[in-house]
Amino acid sequence: MSQSYTLTRGGLIRTSERAATGAKKTAKATTDETLLGLIAMQDQAAMRLLYARHNVRVFRFVLRLVGNEATAEEVVTEVFLDVWRNAARFEGRAQVGTWILGIARFKALSARRRRTLGEIDDDALEAIEDTADTPEAVCATTERSAILQDCLKQLSRAHREVVDLVYYHEQTIDEVARIIGIPENTVKTRVFHARKKIAELLAARGLDRLHL
């Protein structure tokens, strides 16, 4: 059996690749709720794993709101510090990811007010590397992404926010309502009008609708 080594304070410890793979599977199978329970007991390893799972999507969500990469990075740091400090207060009324996005939204809006930012810097957003995409996939979706980004820039901030949460972060209507703090019917109305506006923008360019 092939071997791998782990560096500890006591030196190198030899472990089997099978054991290492098993540890990875165990970590993957650990739920966010379980991790929060461990974080509430000051478990730093659990905090690192939760951060690894959510930091990229939180960063992208925050960047859409603040429009500045440096500010977004600062906000993400604040978000996960809050998670560390307040893990014991999580009541399980929403998914952990939804709870974290709610914290992120509050802090992003606060940062935006402090900086009195104008429109979102979509060029900075598009510059984020998506490591999940292969070069071939990027080429195949470049035109579609460019069209959608152009349409999104023309939506109101409120409509752009619900589109981002529903279609890019895969949040349910109920979860979006919790994150933003508005009734579910208001979320549905905003999604409806956002989709209608995008369809109108596409039609004006002589294009059929793109499926979000």
Write the layout of secondary structure elements.
Layout: E1 3-8, E2 11-16, H1 17-29, H2 32-39, H3 44-66, H4 69-86, H5 96-115, H6 122-126, H7 135-153, H8 157-168, H9 173-180, H10 184-204
Span of the ends, CA to CA:
47 Å
Strand content: 5-15%
CATH superfamily of the largest domain: RNA polymerase sigma factor, region 2, helix turn helix motif
Order of helical and strand elements: EEHHHHHHHHHH
**Could you list the spans in which at least 5 consecutive residues all have pLDDT below 50?**
5-13, 17-23, 117-141
In DSSP terms (H or I, runs of 4 or more residues), the helix count works out at 10
Q: Can you name the CATH architecture of the largest domain? A: Orthogonal Bundle
Q: What is the level 1 CATH name of the largest domain?
A: Mainly Alpha
The largest sheet is: 2 strands, antiparallel
Number of strands: 2
Helix-and-strand structural type: mainly alpha
Shape: elongated
Helix content: 55-70%
Number of domains: 3
Q: Residue-averaged pLDDT, rounded? A: 76
- The Cα radius of gyration reads 20 Å
List the strand order in the largest sheet: 1-2
What is the name of the CATH topology of the largest domain? Answer: Rna Polymerase Sigma Factor, Chain: A
